Amino acid sequence: MTGRMKRISILGATGSIGQSTIDLVRRDKGAFDVVALTGGRNIARLAEDARALGAALAVTAHDDLLDDLRAALKGTGIEAAAGSAALNEAAARPADWVMSAIVGAAGLAPGLAALGQGATLALANKETLVAAGPLVMAAARASGARVLPVDSEHSAIFQALRGEDPDTVDRVVITASGGAFRDWPLERLARATPLEAATHPNWDMGQRITIDSASMFNKALELIEAKELFGFEPERIEVLIHPESLVHALVGFHDGGMIAHVGPPDMRHAIGHAMYWPRRTALPVARLDLAEIGQLSFRAPDPRRYPALGLARQVMAAGGLAGAVFNAAKERALDHFIAGHIGFCHMSEVVEEVLARQMTCGHAGAGGFGLDEVMSADRGARLCADAVVVERQG
Ligand code: NDP
Ligand code: MG
C-alpha cells in the first residue's frame, strides 16, 4: 500500500465470511476506509458494523427492510439503501478492494459491478465463477481488475503458484474434509436431516456451505471454480479427502515435486491474504503444532457417496451455461432439502435430472454468453428443479 488508506467494500458483510473480514478490518482500522457494507435480513448487525467501521453506505438486499435500516442508522449520517439495484450500486462505488461474500448466484451481478469499476475482487462467492466464469474473468481483463481467491483451497493454490511458471503445472489437488457424514454407512445417508448436515467437523461456516460440504456439492463447485480461475484443464484437477482440513491444496509440477499449502482451518488466513496481497501481514490465526497433530491422512473420495463430484465433471466437459444450470439447480435442491421436501441423497438426483433436461432443451452447453443468458439459464434451472421435486412427491 502506498501510504493512503485502502478503500474497501464488503458485500455480504453480515455473513460468516463478511464477519471474519470485518474482524480483520477492526484490528487494523487505520489502514481501511470503508465505503459500503451490504447485508440481507440481519439489519441490526449491518447497522452496528456500519457505525463501528464508519462506512459511508449500508445496503440491505431486501426492499421491505429499508425503513428498519434507516431507523437503525438514524443520526449517523450513513447513507441507507435497499434492493438489488442498490447492491449493484454499492459494488460500483469507487473502491480499491471489494469482498464478494454474498451467498449464492445473488452475488454475481454485484461482483461484476465491482470488477467493472476496476476494484480488486476478493472472491469468496464461488457461485459467481461456477455460473459465469468466462464472463467474470473477461470483465476483470476488460477493466484491468484483479480477482483474488478467498476460498481456502483456491487461496492455497494461488499461494503455491506464486513465482512459478503456470506451464510447469502437472496437476492440482484440492482437499475436502468429507463433511458431516464422511464416516456414516452409505445406507444411513438417505435419512440424514438438515440439522445433522449443517454440523461441520472442522470449519465454522454459513449453513448452506456446511450442508454443501456434507454432500460434496461444495467441492463440486470448487472443481469448476479452480478451472475458471486458473484455467487448468479439468483432468488435471483432483479431489482428495483429507479429514484433518490442514492441507488445503497441493500443486504438482512436471519435475515431480508438489507444493502443499498447510494452515489452520480459519478463513481469516485466506481473507487476510487477499486483503493485504501482495504483502504478507501477521494475522490473528492459530499457529499449527504439527508434532501434536502427529499425522495427516488422505484418501480418494468414494463416487457412490459423493455423486456431486461426477456431476461437476459433466458440467466442466459441457462448458457454456452448464455451470449456471448446475449452480441454480443445486441451490434449489438445497432449499428443498432444508425445507424437508426431499432427502439428502435426492439433492444430487434432482441436480442430475435438471442438467439432463436443460442440456437437451438447449439451455446449457451454448457458446458465448452474457449476464442475461446466465440469469435466464439460472431461472430456467430453478423452475425445472422445482418441477422435478414436485414430480418426485406426486
Ligand atoms: P452466510 O450465509 O453466512 O452469509 C451470506 C451473506 O449474504 C449474508 O450477509 C447475507 O445476509 C447475504 N445474503 C443472503 N442472501 C442474499 C441475497 N439474496 N442478496 C444479497 N445478499 C444476501 O454465507 P457464508 O459467509 O458462509 O458464505 C458466503 C460465500 O462465501 C458463499 O458463496 C460461500 O460459498 C463462500 N465461502 C464461504 C466459506 C465460509 O467459511 N463460510 C468458505 C469459502 C467460501 P443476511 O445474513 O443479513 O441475511
Ligand atoms: Mg473451500
What does this structure look like?
The protein is built from 17 helices and eleven strands. It has 394 residues and is α/β, with parallel strands linked by helices. The chain folds into three domains: 144 residues, Rossmann fold (3-Layer(aba) Sandwich), CATH 3.40.50.720; 138 residues, no CATH class; 76 residues, Rna Polymerase Sigma Factor, Chain: A. The strands form two sheets. Strands 4-3-2-1-5-6-7 form a seven-stranded parallel sheet, sandwiched between helices. A four-stranded mixed sheet has the order 9-8-10-11, covered by helices on one side. Strand 3, helix 3 and strand 4 form a beta-alpha-beta unit. The model has no long low-confidence stretch (mean pLDDT 96). NADPH dihydro-nicotinamide-adenine-dinucleotide phosphate binds next to helix 1 and helix 10.
CATH architecture of the largest domain: 3-Layer(aba) Sandwich
Q: Do you know the CATH topology of the largest domain?
A: Rossmann fold
The fraction of residues in strands falls at 5-15%
**What distance lies between the first and last C-alpha atoms, to the nearest angstrom?**
60 Å
What is the element layout, followed by pairings?
Layout: E1 6-11, H1 16-27, E2 32-39, H2 43-53, E3 57-60, H3 66-72, E4 79-82, H4 84-92, E5 97-100, H5 108-116, E6 120-123, H6 127-143, E7 147-149, H7 152-160, E8 169-176, H8 186-189, H9 194-197, H10 207-215, H11 217-230, E9 237-241, E10 247-253, E11 258-262, H12 267-276, H13 290-293, H14 307-318, H15 322-338, H16 346-360, H17 371-393
Parallel strand pairs: 1-2, 1-5, 2-3, 3-4, 5-6, 6-7, 8-9
Antiparallel strand pairs: 8-10, 10-11
